[in-house]
Amino acid sequence: MKQRYRFSEPFILQSPLSSLETTMASDPKVHAFDEVSKHNSSKDCWLIISGKVYDVTPFMEDHPGGDEVLLSATEKDATDDFEDVGHSESAREMMSKYYIGDIDMETVPKKRAYIPPKQPQYNQDKTPEFVIKILQFLVPLIILGLAFAFRYYAKEKTE
């Protein structure tokens, strides 16, 4: 006698990975910044984006911007780099496959405030510099004027 099964709810086949993903999502590993920053090569690349750590090594060759873009975002919080590009919704959804845990924000170095380079003091008395610039312009003109005057004078004497 053959039995027929009836399901009141749709049957969903779960892969062995789905229970692992659920476990990872419910109990993410917390990584220190020093640990994450060691993964900075094309063969082993981890990124920090929005407080989460992603192992993007399998995605290096497939990234539309190339692996250089991903490598330049290592060893720092790459959130601003990621957001500035304006990634699509599908790119954001794709990130879940590479998620490996959270970052311990206490270990991430604080962003340094921008300190503009020191400007040289404004020298109100620029007379030596000004005189040199004037001389660089006037000396060739004086030489040229003297040459024309000499030629004109020499031409009048011969006539």
Shape: elongated
- Class by SSE composition: alpha+beta
Quote the beta fraction: 5-15%
Number of strands: 5
Specify the oligomeric state. Answer: single chain
With strands numbered from the N-terminus, the spatial order across the biggest sheet is 1-5-4-3-2
Largest sheet: 5 strands, mixed
Helical amount: 40-55%
The number of distinct helices, counting runs of at least 4 residues, comes to 6
Low-confidence stretches: 5-25
* Average pLDDT number: 80
Q: What's the helix-strand series?
A: HEHEEEHHHEH
Structure, briefly:
With 159 residues, the chain is an alpha+beta fold. It is built from six helices and five strands.
Account of the 3D structure:
By secondary structure, the chain is of the alpha+beta class. Helices cover 42% and strands 12% of the residues. It has helices spanning 16-26, 33-37, 67-72, 79-85, 89-94, 127-158; strands at 30-31, 40-41, 44-49, 52-55, 99-103. A hairpin with a 2-residue loop joins strand 3 and strand 4 (52-55). The longest helix is centred in the C-terminal third of the chain and has 32 residues, at 127-158. The radius of gyration is 35 Å and the shape is elongated. The termini are far apart. The relative contact order is 0.11. Residues 5-25 have low confidence and may be disordered.
